[in-house]
Amino acid sequence: MATLADLHEEYDFLDGDDRYRLLIDLGRGLEVMPPALKTDATLVRGCSASVWVYPMRREDGTLHFLADSNAAITKGIIALVLLTVQDRSPAEITATDIEGALAPFDLKAQLSSNRTQGIPNMIALIRETAARYAA
User: Fold this and answer.
1) How far is CA 88 from the centre of its chain?
2) Which residues carry out catalysis?
3) Mean pLDDT along residues 2-28
4) Domains plus CATH for the chain?
5) Is the CA virtual torsion 87, 91, 92, 97 positive or negative?
6) Predicted TM-score (pTM) of this structure
């Protein structure tokens, strides 16, 4: 998968419709989340689309997240968020400025508020999970 910086460079070059297509393509690249993991316990609250996030701790102590949404563009946003935290240690995740990493994409200006309103809740869930594992 491309780095966040590479994606931003491509994203910045594109117009609105092509940016949507890029996000949709990113979402298609997400690791498949088994339907059995899409439960009320893994549902992110406050999203207009359904978003599920399931954390797994690897043997090396890093966290790996499975995530999915029933909305194609939202899946792309999830993919951007995961690029900032995937397979990192809980301490690294809690120290990561996820919002700052996503800021160059200016998602709030590019997408409707319905598409972006759940991002802070997803980020909070990831941080809470990392903090719990770091303790």
Assistant:
1) 14
2) 47
3) 90
4) 4-134 (3.90.1010.10)
5) positive
6) 0.89
**What residues does 43 pair with on adjacent strands?**
52
Both tokens of 89, joined, read: 């240690």
Torsion of CA 113, 116, 117, 121, to 10 degrees: -170
Q: Distance between terminal CA atoms of the chain?
A: 30
Residues 6+ apart with CB under 8 A from 56: 63, 64, 65, 66
Using DSSP's 3-state secondary structure scheme, residue 56 falls into strand
Bridge partners of residue 63, in order along the sequence: 57, 88
Task: Give the tens place of pLDDT for each residue, 84-114.
Answer: 999 999 999 999 999 999 999 888 777 666 6
For the segment 29-72, what is each residue's pLDDT rounded down to a tens digit? 999 999 999 999 999 988 788 999 999 999 999 999 999 999 99
